[in-house]
Design brief:
Strand content: 25-35%
CATH class: Alpha Beta
Helix content: 25-40%
CATH architecture: Roll
Distance between the termini: 15 Å
Structural class: alpha+beta
Radius of gyration: 14 Å
Number of domains: 1
Strand order of the largest sheet: 1-5-4-3-2
Largest sheet: 5 strands, mixed
Number of strands: 5
CATH topology: Nuclear Transport Factor 2, Chain: A
């Protein structure tokens, strides 16, 4: 599997854990040997693994949290780091997300997630673009 395909697989696993409210799966996707951070829409920056994972536990355990769907993922890889930019569909809203990964062992682990509103309409997303690669 190419580095780009492997990175996109890790990104999709993140959204699968999100959709399935799978805290154990979410926890396994985040780096444990590298500092992590997260900025949820409207939240302050979370800058350590304990706070980041506590935020995910709260979101995933909340029955009122809306489902999230990922679209249009584009990936870049360089020197053991990976970046995925994609859109998140949350009810009728569109967010743009930045997901940063590093290699830990044989796999990609998330070190940063940030999502915020953007001006793209859900109908304007169209077909999935081809992933791009910088190596």
């Amino acid at each position: 599997m190419s580095e780009i395909a492997s990175l996109l697989f890790a990104n999709e696993a993140f959204y699968l854990a999100f959709r399935n409210r799978d805290f154990a799966g979410m926890d396994a996707l985040w780096a444990s040997q590298t500092d992590v951070s997260c900025i949820h829409p409207g939240w302050d920056s979370l800058d350590n693994r304990e706070d980041v994972m506590a935020s995910w536990r709260g979101i995933l355990d909340n029955a009122d949290s809306p489902p999230v769907e990922s679209r249009g993922a584009r990936a870049k890889v360089w020197n053991g780091a990976g970046l995925v930019i994609c859109y998140e569909l949350v009810e009728q809203n569109v967010l743009v997300a930045t997901n940063v990964f590093v290699k830990e062992g044989a796999g990609w682990k998330m070190v940063h997630h940030q999502a915020g509103p953007c001006r793209v309409s859900p109908n304007g997303l169209g077909e999935e673009p081809e992933p791009i690669s910088v190596q």
